[in-house]
Amino acid sequence: MNMNQLTRFLAWAGASVTLLAGLCLTTVDLQGADQSGDRRAARKAARDGARPSRLPEAVMEKPRRPPFEVALVDRASRPAVATAAERIDALLAEHWREHGVKPSQKLTDEQFVRRAYLELAGRIPTHDEAVKFLSARGAAKRSELVDRLLESPDYVSHFYNWWADILRLAERPQKQFPFEPYLSYVKEAIRTNKPYDEWMHEMLTADGRIWENPAVGFQLRDQGMPLPYVDNTVRVLLGTQIGCAQCHDHPFDHWTQREFYELAALTSGTRMRLGAEGAKTMKNREPVSPHTRELLREVRATNAPNAAAIAQFVLANATSVSYRDEPLRLPADYQYDDAEPLAAVEPKVLWGEVPASAHAAGGRERFAAWIVAHDNRQFARTIANRLWKKLMGVGLVEPVDDFREENPASHPALLEHLTDEMLRLDFDLRDFVRILVTTDAWQRRAVLHDPSAGEPFRFTGPALRRMTAEQLWDSLLVLIAHDPWSVQRPTASDIAAAASLDIERADLAAVIAKQQEFMARYQPGRYQRSLAAVCGYNGQLLVRASEQPAPLPLGHFMRQFGQSDRETIEGSRQVATVPQILAMFNGPITHAMLEKGSVIYDEVTSRGPEQAIDVVFLSVLTHRPSAEDRRFAVQEVLTAENRAAGFGNVIWALLNTREFIFIQ
Fold first, then answer.
1. Are 269 and 364 in contact (CB under 8 A)?
2. pLDDT in tens, 94-129
3. For the chain, N or C: smaller number of CB within 10 Å?
């Protein structure tokens, strides 16, 4: 915490905002801030200690047990993890010597505990968690903290948010079609630490309806768009952009249009509707069974105001993924000499070979087996590079989905070593993360990185980054909610109970009755109102980011800070905007922490001024104040209209510093 900055904050003098390097850096002097209506209201609320808290009871109750169990970490493997981390550090040290650079400073315990919680749990530590770690003794305390975080619900929540941005996880990507079972499946795969190759193979080959086999959501996400599905799959899982070759030979890579169609021929027999045997599936409008078609005609004939919603419900129940080999033909406007327009293409992978175990299988199975095979190093290389960027801030290949000969890795030997490690671990992503955060390189101070400088990043420490929207939300929630898990996302069985119908035997009356049952529980507006009744505060749901509606509305705090709309792969943003600053100054989420019954309110009001200031600094910045910091902060508390308002001023000041919002 910069003392001059804190002094200016607490003097309430002037207002200025600095935006630096495209990230939200705020240095604020607040002269005349008590002219703000929002701040006057907050100060009045702080004065009124007798007024009952407006926070929901479910949020203020301390949970008696974790929200769910997580697969345990094998502590006996710590020596092997340390050895693997040392090999990575040795490669980096050689790289630094070769390029004449020095590593950044090592993290103090205060900096380490904060980064570990942010990067593994998606939030800052609580006051008690910080004190417990800082008071601990012994050489293994950092390893023990890492292991505890990796087997916590917080880890599941945080990495779910990361995957949600990559996989474009949305509750209703297709109108009334419920995707919650798929979202729940992704979280379950993280919770159980399912091997990555097994997890991806399941999603690439799953059959059935989404509430019966939620893994089909990966294929359904691009329903009606079979060619973009292939492009998106290769981009996400193999880090290769082949989309341009859908229409013509790739202008910047060596992929041809014919090669694209040969790969797409492996999945062209994927169908999305029940009872549409033998129907073509490469058109946007997929056929349905005769019975479903008759039901849809009856729905239209009712002229009911909700006829469109009922029709969507029928189609949701008629949507079931299956596969049968089916030829794919080149487009009518194919213009190259190696084949005729409309010629059938022979299914073929882009490089390497399909594993022998899948030679006799259908095209979709051959496609999946080729992607996840240990022999296909690009699959392991891509996820290793993604996780490296997740923890170090910059990929060894950037962008992470643009592997090309013309775009080499900044440290090829390290990338190949990480690929070997991923294969050695049999795609245990959590153990891979465990190794990376055990490295000496990760446990160093963050360093500045300018992506436009043209110089490769040397990884002398992780790149300095602002918290993601989800990290920022969940960190603020730490200061508010005793129970941030008061509601959780519905499971596949929850949705099935309300939505599942034997559509091939149902009549119109049964369809309408079941649709009404589903809408009564999960119609988006109604469902969100039911959540608000449990954990709502001023239009916000005070629960973890992973349990929030997806996508959130544009005006929501997390959308303001760049959360993705889940329409594009990795669509989140880190661009600084004025609404972000206003949200941190006077948004509902910052007011909530000053409500009676919040975590920080309870912690502060139960102590004397000096001890309470220590609590505030540890809670917000994860370190104790310097003597000068404490003196100025205590002076602000004692000279304010009342102590609650004074503490609120100090908390507001710390929240709006660079130190809070950046991962140092």
1. yes
2. 999 999 999 999 999 999 999 999 999 999 999 999
3. C
Contact between 444 and 462 (Cβ < 8 Å): yes
Measured CA distances, 404 to 231, 254, 397, 412 (Å) = 16, 9, 9, 13
CB 4 within 8 Å of CB 637: no
Per-residue model confidence as pLDDT tens digits over 409-447: 999 999 999 999 999 999 999 999 999 999 999 999 999
User: For the chain, which residues make up each domain, given as ranges?
Assistant: 194-372
Cβ neighbours around 463 below 10 Å, total? 17
Q: How far apart are CA 427 and CA 155, in angstroms?
A: 18
pTM of the complete model: 0.91
- Rounded to 5 degrees, φ, ψ at 536 are -85, 145
Q: Could you report the per-residue pLDDT of 469-495, keeping only the tens digit for each?
A: 999 999 999 999 999 999 999 999 999
Helices (H), 12-126: 37-47, 57-60, 78-99, 109-116
DSSP string of 163-230? HHHHHT--S-TTTT---HHHHHHHHHHHHTT--HHHHHHHHHH--B-TTTSGGGHHHHTTTT-HHHHH
CA 70, CA 50: separation in Å to the nearest integer?
A: 41
Neighbours of 292 (CB within 10 A): 22
